Structures are given as structure tokens and as C-alpha cells.
Amino acid sequence: MNGIDLAVSTVIFALRPDADDRLVLSIPLVRRTREPFEGHWALPGGGADAAESLDATAARTLEETTGLTPAYLEQLYCFGEPDRSPSGRVVSIVYWALVRGDEAEQATIDENVAWFPADELPRLAFDHNLIVDYALWRLRNKLEYSRIAHAFLGETFTLTALRQVHEIVLQRPLDPANFRRQIEASRAVVPTGEHVTGGRHRPPRLYRYDATVDLVDRGPLTPAGIR
Amino acid sequence: MNGIDLAVSTVIFALRPDADDRLVLSIPLVRRTREPFEGHWALPGGGADAAESLDATAARTLEETTGLTPAYLEQLYCFGEPDRSPSGRVVSIVYWALVRGDEAEQATIDENVAWFPADELPRLAFDHNLIVDYALWRLRNKLEYSRIAHAFLGETFTLTALRQVHEIVLQRPLDPANFRRQIEASRAVVPTGEHVTGGRHRPPRLYRYDATVDLVDRGPLTPAGIR
DNA sequence: CCAAAAGTGTTAGTTGTACACCCATGT
DNA sequence: ACATGGGTGTACAACTAACACTTTTGG
User: Fold this and answer.
1) What keywords sit in the KW lines (chains A, B) (predicted)?
2) CATH class for domain B145-209?
């Protein structure tokens, strides 16, 4: 024992429709009900449990506070500046998670839990603004060299849906033709043979993840939250 | 307080000459003098200090146990499986560091501190073999998309020396001509105008880091150990 | 002069990007 | 028929990798 509290928090990302039905990269936050920072919004989390792995604590506290189950979960960074909490020394092990669109709809929403657009956050408790900035930076980087975008989508999806995930997260338009070829070349995805009907245009093919390809190369570490 | 001990450890890398005077990627380890794992080699480190940042604790414990000062220091990962220490729950925040060749020669060496080739380690205490494997993976990845190789070298250096750093760490030969052009194109380095004389061949140019270019892009996080 | 490493030039193959164009559907 | 997004083809630029070649030193 050395007078240091150990906490686990998670930055959760989902793509949710806004008032105009456009998808927005969003983060659920919880309102603090006690000091310090009472009334401020903060990342969901909780104290570390002596009997539980850190991954498990992240998944559990995430579920307890928001009702969500992540499709992807990875440790982000450990924040431990001595002055980051006015109430004493707290070291936070922070995770980041991706949840699917349909899953995000089932999140607990009450006066103490709410979704915010990732790039329009209020002043958060502690150093949580910095933490979210870092998580956003990692998400955007990792999207470009891994297949994690799939974790935002359901079992099957069109390439247009996958491209829109990239476009929304990276905040820039992508050429549909070139995107298609990149994804096909990466072998991350296999056509189901089915099509989506009902649109006002040519029915797009449905694809499925190639489960034999890992979402991310994490080297010697066994991925925590890959399905 | 929750019955969890918080420790900080560091994987330190340096390039040191072996018996045949060939440079080898090496790691200093300390021998444990008490249970658990008494007599086993382990990563240098120590308990977290309530008044000190994690970066500072890593730098301090690194200096206390090995006598080394790192040219580069970055947080690696936080390891916290419940069963990783037989003596109770320990969460380790692990850093990785690079030290320069001349600095490495000044390391404390006694019966309880010794250098090992990074790819020929004995069975280490706790999960430290996994940790070193992960640090190696990160080092090799990061070498390819950043300028951290410079942290192994002194103030000035030849491009051949820089290329040898890459070759040793990545364990494969690199084309000298293409390597030169890549480095020059990256603008990471500026010629000093001086040359190394005394070799049996054409005297190579000496280069210096371009201090206006960051070694690594760490996004919103301020780098810990960049000079 | 010769060996060896420093440094430059050239070319072929690969990858990225822009954009023209055809395809299949609902209205 | 036509608007709309799905999907294919193509051409050019940029980058990579392989390797021939020239330069400069010590012996």
C-alpha cells in the first residue's frame, strides 16, 4: 500500500444518428454525483478490483454504468500525474472501446448518462478531455492500419456502410472506387452472395468479416475484446 | 486502497558490443534478492511513489538500479493480470527506454545487474518474458515509422552507423543507397560538414539530429523522455 | 593499382489517386 | 427515361526496391 488509488475508465465510441439522421462519432459520459467535480461529466469507470483482470474491470464497469457491451476493447494508456485529481493520488488505467450502432441504441440513458459528439465535449472532470483527445487520435490512426472499423458495424454490411464509417471517423471523403479495391485487397472481408434490396438504385452486395483475419496485430499480447 | 500494489518497471534497450565486437541489442536485468522469484532475473523497477509522476518514477528507478539515463522513455503498457505475481495482486506500469551506446558502458554491473542479448533471455521472474517480447515488438514497429533509432546514437553519427542500428534491431540487411535517400527525404538529419577520417576508405560525412523535428508523433500526449 | 566503403544514378515494379464510364434498380 | 448509388477500368504520379556505377580514401 502506498496511498495510490487505482481506477479503470473507458472511452467508448459509437456512431449514432443525430437529429438529421446523420451518423456522428459519439461518446457516452456519466455525470459525477460527488466531489471532486460533482456535476461534471466524466468517463465511465470504477475502482480496480483486486480479484479481476484490468480488461475484465473495464468491461464490467462499462456495462454497469452504460449498459453497453463492446465489440472491441483495448487498453489505451495509464494516466498518473500526481495532480490529476484534487482529492488525492489516482492512477487511471484507461481503455477504449468500440460498440456497434444497434448496441449503442440499447445504452442506458438517464439524467446521469448521456451521449456527446466526440468533437464537441464540454469541460470534463479531471484530465478526461486530454484522455478523450488521445483516444480519438489512436482511433483515427488505428483505423488506417487495421480493420477495427468493422467493430462499428453488424454481422453483415455493405462496402458503402464500411466506407462511411471511415469517412465519419477520419472526417474526410474517400473515393468509393479506391476504397473498394483497398478493402478487397486486404482480404478482410468476404461477400455473402446476398444483396440489399429496396434501395432506389442498384442493390449493393452484402459482406461479412473474414474471421480468419485478426482485426488488429497486437504482437505478443492477446487481444482483449476481439470477438 | 483496494489491496493492489502498484509497481513501475522498465525495459531498457541498448546496442552493446559482444565478444567479437559486433553490436547486439541488449537489455539490463536485475537479480531478485527476495521471494517471489528470488534469484531470477527481472526488469528493473520499483514501487510507485505517491508524490511522483509515473514517468519520473520510471526514470528514477531506472537510474537507481542500473545507473543509466535514457535518451528516450515511453510508457509501454500496464500489466495487471490477477495471477501474475504469486505474492498478491501487483499492477505494473511498464516503460521502455533507449540508451546510447556510450551511456550503456557506464551502467552499474555487479553480480545483481547484468546485460543480456534481447533475443536470448533466460526464464525471467513474473510475466517479464512476455513484457520484453511486447517491448521488442513495439521497438521494431516504431523504428519503421519514427526516428527513435537516433536515441541509440551520440550527438553526431554517420549514416552507416544509423543504418546499422536499423539492421541490428530489425534483423535484416538494408540497402545503403536507398536507406540514405529515405533518411535524407525525412529531413530528420542534417550534415555537420565534417567527416570521419582514419578509416580504410572514403571518409563518411557526419550528421546531427534535426532538433526541430520530433522523434515521434505521440498526438495529444507530451512526450516523456525526448531530449 | 587495388580493396572497401561512401555516395549517385537509373530502371522496373508496385501502390496511391483521380476520374471516366458502365450497371442495375425504383420511380 | 432518368436519377442514384453500385461497381469496373484506366491512366498518371509517387514511392519502393534492386543494382550498376562513380568517388575517395588507406594500404
Assistant:
1) Hydrolase
2) mainly alpha
Q: Is the CB of A67 under 7 A from strand D?
A: no
A78 touches chain B (CB under 8 A): yes
Which of B2, B28, B33, B53 minimizes the C-alpha distance to B128? Answer: B28
CB contact under 8 A, B77 and A48: no
Q: Quick check: A94 and A55 in contact, CB under 8 A?
A: no
Cβ pair B10, B64 in contact under 8 A? no
In angstroms, the CA A225 to CA B6 distance is 24
The residue type at B141: N
Nearest to B54 among A5, A52, A80 (CB): A80
| Domain A150-209 sits in CATH 1.10.10.10 | yes
DSSP chain A: --S-EEEEEEEEEEEEE-TTS-EEEEEEEEE--SSSSTT-EE--EEE--TTS-HHHHHHHHHHHHH----SEEEEEEEE--TTS-TTS-EEEEEEEEE--HHHHHTS--BTTEEEEETTS----STTHHHHHHHHHHHHHHHHHHSSGGGGGS-SEE-HHHHHHHHHHHHTS---HHHHHHHHHHHT-EEEEEEE--SSSSSPPEEEEE-TTS-S---TTSPPSS--
Gap from A203 CA to D3 C1', Å? 15
Could you tell me if B91 and B6 are in contact, meaning their C-beta atoms sit under 8 angstroms apart?
yes
* Cross-strand bridge partners of residue B27: B116
Q: Span A5-144: which CATH code?
A: 3.90.79.10
Q: How far is the CA of B179 from the C1' of C15 (A)?
A: 19
CA distance A80 to A90: 7
Measured between CB atoms, does B9 come within 8 Å of chain A?
no
For residue A123, the tally of other CB atoms under 10 A from its CB is 9
Domain ranges of chain A: 5-144, 150-209
Length of chain B: 227
